[in-house]
Design brief:
With 420 residues, the protein is an alpha+beta fold. The chain has 14 helices and 18 strands.
Length: 420
């Protein structure tokens, strides 16, 4: 790279960004990045207006009006957030940093010196990587379940059951069959006194082959093999997943306190899924079994959107998050509720999925809080009954990372399972 003139090196950095894992599932963001990159390197960006960006980069029609269509501003906010994510994780070692200051459409290119490794490996981790700070151990949930089991039935749930909650959860309330509540187990790379998380790396084999882990090992002069300083760790979960598991336990403990157990997704077995009712909370990125179960369904959770794989008339192809244009914070997002018959007769599965941990929390609220369950069930009822298998897309409004409102977006009845 040092033999390149600055403009060539900057174009090379743009291409690396466009091909990165961070932008892999964000075609619109990639297009905007390259469009603004060309304009910035050719000194045209300062003259760009929102209308021009909307028409030329986003493909909006000539009658596009930025006053009523904020898509260009929203996509610009997403690009800013993706750049921060890329350089905090995947591009931590880049010697050129692409920036996107607010107030215009011009990208900046900062050239960094080639730094020597610090003596303290932990200092390097804190310098180059975001250490997951908002994670809770699984032991907290185990304590919650023990607490509920120790209380008399009828006192464990603070929320009263109503007819709609009973209707939604009825298949799970069979006294003969236990319920397993499982939650996502994201991969952390463990080092002495530190844990590092790359969202795009979700299994240890991929981690060992990845540029990120090998680059960090080389940078810190710490071998991956033999007496390795690096090891997989699945002991932590996002705050939304943990809170969601708590809400499910609180709800079901009053009905089946002795038939409720908790398992991390990483140790969830086919035998667990076959012999029990299953409630899974999380995006399941590193749970291969759940990816198999969800394959070929009508909706799927992708980066920044729930994708509609089999759209019906009038439905969008994506249900996409909304971003605060000023702060880049996610203000609204979509979650996916999937209700399926289990692998054995009489067993059922409920999978509550989203990409962001706060939105996963909102997905759980959609099926545990009576004020959200009642309108949801009203949309699902047909002929007074609920379908046996369905997927529901729900919209979650967030305030400071907390779900404050859940509303119905759409649903599909799956296959030929019929009604209950």
């Amino acid at each position: 790279m040092h033999s390149l003139v600055p403009a060539e090196a900057e174009r090379e950095e743009l291409q690396r960004l466009a091909a990165s894992r961070t932008l892999r599932d964000s075609e619109a963001v990639r297009k905007l990045l390259l469009y603004l990159g060309d304009a910035s390197l050719e000194d045209r960006a300062e003259q760009l207006k929102e209308y021009t960006v909307g028409v030329e980069a986003l493909g909006r029609p000539s009658h596009y009006d930025p006053r009523t269509d904020s898509s260009a501003r929203a996509l610009a906010a997403r690009l800013r957030r993706k750049l921060e994510e890329y350089y905090a994780e995947e591009g931590a070692y880049s010697l050129i940093r692409v920036g996107f200051p607010k107030g215009g459409f011009k990208l900046t290119f900062d050239h960094l010196p080639n730094l020597s490794p610090p003596a303290d490996p932990v200092a390097a981790v804190t310098r180059w990587k975001r250490i997951a700070g908002v994670c809770l151990g699984a032991s907290l949930l185990s304590i919650s379940l023990l607490f509920f089991r120790g209380r008399p039935a009828g006192q464990a749930s603070a929320l009263p059951w109503n007819a709609d909650l009973e209707a939604l959860w009825q298949p799970f309330l069979d006294e003969r069959i236990p319920i397993v509540v499982s939650f996502g187990s994201p991969l952390f790379v463990s080092m002495p006194n530190a844990f590092v998380r790359w969202p795009a790396i979700n299994d240890w084999e991929s981690a060992l082959r990845s540029d990120e882990v090998n680059g960090l090992a080389s940078y810190l002069r710490a071998p991956l093999q033999g007496k390795a300083r690096f090891a997989p760790n699945f002991d932590y979960a996002g705050i939304g997943d943990v809170h969601g598991a708590f809400l499910i336990a609180r709800l079901l403990a009053s009905k089946k306190p002795e038939q409720l157990s908790l398992k991390r997704g990483i140790v969830l077995s086919w035998e667990d899924i076959k012999n029990n009712h299953l409630v899974f909370i999380g995006n399941g990125k590193n749970q291969e079994k759940l990816r198999d179960i969800l394959a070929d369904r009508d909706f799927a959770v992708g980066e920044a959107a729930v994708r509609n794989l089999k759209p019906q008339p009038g439905e969008p192809l994506e249900f996409r998050e909304t971003i605060d244009e000023r702060t880049g914070e996610i203000r609204g997002d979509y979650a996916l509720l999937t209700f399926l018959p289990g692998l054995e007769q009489g067993r059922y599965m409920l999978l509550l999925s989203a990409m962001n941990t706060e939105t996963i929390w909102g997905a759980v609220e959609a099926v545990t809080n009576p004020k959200f369950v009642t309108p949801l069930v009203a949309h699902l009822r047909y002929g007074g009954k609920l379908p046996r298998a369905f997927q529901v897309v729900v919209k979650i409004r967030l305030g400071a990372g907390v779900p404050v409102e859940v509303s119905y977006a759409t649903h599909h009845v799956l296959g030929s399972f019929g009604q209950r």
